[in-house]
Backbone:
C-alpha cells in the first residue's frame, strides 16, 4: 500500500478476485460534485441536499432546486447519482423548516420526519428532482434520511415512484437496521449512514470528542447491524451501500464488503486509498475479516482482528 499505488489508483473499484464495488463520492452541491470528478470515483453515493440551504430563511423554489440538482447530475453524465432528500434538523437545522427549541433535536422532527408537518417541502423537492431527471438522460436514485419503520419507507417510496424515480432509504436508525428485510421489501435500495447509525446505536453524540470510542463505527454492535442489513439486501437481491465516513477507512471498507455491502461512498479524497486497498484483497479475505471483527468485544480488537485476517 505504498503512496504511489494509492496515487496511481484510477478505479473502477474491485477486489483482487474481480468482485465489483462502486467507489462513490459524497457531495454537497454542483461545485463539490465537479471537484469530485477529479478523484477516481464512479458517481455520487450521497448528495446531501440540505447543505446548500443552510443559510436560507425561505424555502427554495422548484426552479432553484432543479438548477442545483441538474448541476450535480450533469457533473457525472451516465453515472450513478444518489440524491438524498432534505436531512434538516439536529446537526443541520434549516431555518425554513426546523422546529425551534426541541428538547432533543437528534431525536426530534428531523430528516424525513419534516414531511409530517411540512409535506409540501418534501413534495416540492421531489418535483424538482423529477424535473432535473427529466432534463437529463440520467436516472437519479432518491433516498430519504432518518427512516425508522417500513411504513415510513413505503410512504416515501410511493411519493418517489409516483414521479417515476427510483426509491431508497437511508439506514441510520437502529430500528431500521433491525427490520431491514421489511424495509428493503418496500424500496429499490438502501444506503447505511454509519455516522448516525453509530450515534443512535451507541447512544453517543456524534459531535462529542469525549465519546470518540463509543462513536467509532468499528463498534461490534454497529458491525452486527450492518451485517443484518447486508444479509437482507442479499436475500432480496437489492443494493446495500454505505455512505457514512466509515466508507473512507480502507480497512473498514474491506470489512464492509466482507459483510455484504455492495457500494461505498465517502469524501472523494478517500476514494483512492479505499480503492487501492480493495484491489489487494479477495472477497473471501474480506468475509473472513468481517467475521473476525464481528466476534470481538471492542473497536480496537475489531480493527486488530480485521487487519490480521487481511494480512494473511
Ligand atoms: C450518516 O449519518 O452516516 C450520513 C451519511 O448522513 P449525515 O452524515 O449527513 O448525517
Ligand atoms: Mg445521517
Residues:
Amino acid at each position: 500500500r505504498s503512496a504511489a499505488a494509492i496515487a496511481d489508483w484510477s478505479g473502477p473499484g474491485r477486489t483482487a478476485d474481480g468482485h465489483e464495488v462502486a467507489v462513490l463520492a459524497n457531495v454537497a452541491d454542483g461545485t463539490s460534485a465537479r471537484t469530485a470528478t477529479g478523484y477516481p470515483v464512479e458517481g455520487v453515493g450521497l448528495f446531501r441536499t440540505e447543505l446548500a440551504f443552510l443559510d436560507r430563511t425561505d424555502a427554495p423554489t422548484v426552479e432553484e432546486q432543479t438548477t442545483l440538482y441538474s448541476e450535480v447530475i450533469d457533473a457525472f453524465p451516465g453515472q450513478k447519482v444518489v440524491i438524498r432528500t432534505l436531512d434538516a434538523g439536529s446537526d443541520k437545522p434549516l431555518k425554513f423548516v426546523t422546529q425551534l427549541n426541541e428538547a432533543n433535536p437528534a431525536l426530534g422532527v428531523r430528516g424525513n420526519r419534516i414531511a409530517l408537518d411540512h409535506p409540501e417541502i418534501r413534495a416540492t423537492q421531489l418535483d424538482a428532482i423529477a424535473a432535473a431527471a427529466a432534463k437529463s438522460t440520467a436516472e437519479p436514485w432518491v433516498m430519504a434520511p432518518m427512516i425508522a419503520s417500513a411504513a415510513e419507507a413505503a410512504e416515501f417510496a410511493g411519493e418517489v415512484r409516483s414521479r417515476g424515480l427510483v426509491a431508497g432509504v437511508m439506514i441510520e436508525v437502529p430500528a431500521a437496521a433491525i427490520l431491514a428485510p421489511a424495509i428493503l421489501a418496500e424500496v429499490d435500495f438502501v444506503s447505511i449512514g454509519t455516522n448516525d447509525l453509530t450515534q443512535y446505536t451507541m447512544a453517543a453524540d456524534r459531535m462529542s470528542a469525549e465519546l470518540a470510542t463509543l462513536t467509532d463505527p468499528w463498534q461490534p454492535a454497529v458491525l452486527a447491524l450492518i451485517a443484518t442489513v447486508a444479509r437482507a439486501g442479499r436475500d432480496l437481491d437489492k443494493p446495500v451501500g454505505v455512505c457514512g465516513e466509515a466508507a473512507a477507512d480502507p480497512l473498514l471498507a474491506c470489512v464492509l464488503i466482507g459483510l455484504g455491502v455492495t457500494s461505498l461512498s465517502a469524501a472523494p479524497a478517500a476514494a483512492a486509498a479505499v480503492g487501492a486497498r480493495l484491489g489487494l484483497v479477495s472477497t473471501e479475505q474480506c468475509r473472513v475479516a468481517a467475521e473476525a471483527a464481528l466476534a470481538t468485544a471492542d473497536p480496537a480488537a475489531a480493527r486488530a482482528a480485521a487487519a490480521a485476517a487481511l494480512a494473511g
